């Protein structure tokens, strides 16, 4: 059996969504209309009429754990031409910090908590448990691969996997423009923040994440209401930070919200509160 096909089936058996890559880490289009990513490559982002597939089928959206698809006619030629196997990190609740060169690796060793490490051709993949929005070039030689992207499979790596830290989440905040830090003034007279301890804010953010995560329907409305509640309770004393906003965006995107929808909901909530 083809080596890459065997790898994909091995990953699928462990609930890791896999897909074939051609040379240059380029995904295969799974129908003629999807060639060169004509379908947009993301759910709800197809060019109208450009693709007859029953679902978004290109790039990360094609990653699957279904062996009948992996071994089926759609990918039969792809595996013969494949140069590598990729997987969807966000699909299994993971985030890959892709460190592209030695300087980036050195930075990670100084700045990030230890976790599972996978060697790559030029650097390392640091893999954390947890999902977040993906973004390229968050700092020199560093990409974030989690939701709505694929990462090349380079083996299981070594080391204990740890929880996704706020240090990594905060790296993408500047990529989510036009979202900006909440800079509403402190209460009149310069009084002490009514939250008094960071624990109050942390509980509020954790409850907001849970509310979004548990939404079974009306996700758009739930995200907006939750953003509104967080900003109303925590947005006027200066305690809310970019890292807090990134956590809420991560929870919303894990439920299928796009970065643009998150930006709009956050901006609309701020506008409603006069911020």
E-strand count: 9
Low-confidence stretches: 40-50, 176-192
> Largest sheet, if any?
5 strands, antiparallel
General shape: globular
Provide the succession of SSEs. HEEHHEEHEEEEEHHHHH
Radius of gyration: 21 Å
Q: Kindly report the average pLDDT value.
A: 79
Q: How many domains, in number, for the residues?
A: 3
Report on this model:
It is a single chain. It is built from nine helices and nine strands. It has 275 residues and is of the alpha+beta class. The chain has three domains: 3-86, no CATH class; 90-165, no CATH class; 177-272, no CATH class. Strand 7 and strand 8 (142-145) form a beta hairpin. Helix 6 (198-213) packs parallel to helix 8. It is globular and about 60 Å long. The N and C termini lie far apart (60 Å).
Task: Kindly summarize this structure in a few lines.
The protein has three domains: 3-86, no CATH class; 90-165, no CATH class; 177-272, no CATH class. Helix content is 34%, strand content 14%.
List the helices and strands and how they pair.
Layout lengths: L2 H11 L4 E5 L3 E2 L39 H4 L5 H6 L2 E4 L6 E6 L2 H10 L4 E4 L4 E6 L5 E5 L2 E4 L5 E2 L13 H4 L28 H16 L5 H16 L7 H13 L4 H14 L3
Antiparallel strand pairs: 1-2, 1-3, 3-9, 4-6, 4-8, 5-6, 7-8
Helix pairs in contact: 6-7, 6-8, 7-9
Name some characteristics of this structure.
275 residues; 3 domains; four-stranded antiparallel beta sheet; globular
């Amino acid at each position: 059996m083809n080596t890459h096909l065997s790898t994909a089936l091995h990953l699928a058996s462990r609930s890791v969504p896999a897909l074939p890559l051609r040379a240059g880490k380029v995904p295969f289009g799974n129908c003629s209309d999807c060639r060169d990513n004509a379908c947009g490559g993301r759910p709800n982002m197809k060019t109208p009429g450009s693709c007859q597939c029953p679902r978004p089928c290109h790039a990360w959206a094609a990653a699957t754990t279904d062996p009948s698809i992996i071994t089926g006619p759609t990918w039969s030629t792809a595996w013969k031409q494949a140069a590598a196997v990729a997987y969807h990190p966000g699909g299994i609740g993971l985030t890959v910090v892709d460190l592209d060169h030695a300087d980036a690796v050195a930075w990670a060793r100084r700045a990030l908590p230890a976790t599972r490490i996978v060697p790559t051709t030029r650097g390392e993949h640091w893999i954390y448990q947890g999902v977040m929005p993906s973004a390229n070039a968050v700092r020199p030689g560093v990409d974030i691969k989690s939701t709505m992207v694929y990462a090349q499979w380079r083996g299981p790596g070594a080391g204990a996997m740890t929880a996704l830290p706020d240090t990594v989440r905060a790296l993408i905040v500047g990529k989510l423009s036009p979202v900006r830090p909440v800079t509403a003034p402190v209460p009149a007279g310069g009084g002490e923040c009514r939250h008094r301890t960071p624990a109050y804010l942390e509980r509020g953010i954790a409850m907001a994440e849970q509310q979004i995560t548990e939404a079974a329907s009306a996700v758009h409305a739930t995200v907006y209401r939750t953003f509104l509640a967080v900003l109303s309770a925590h947005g006027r004393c200066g305690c809310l930070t970019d890292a807090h906003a990134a956590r809420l965006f991560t929870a919303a995107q894990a439920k299928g919200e796009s970065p643009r929808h998150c930006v709009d909901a956050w901006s609309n909530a701020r506008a409603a509160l006069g911020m």
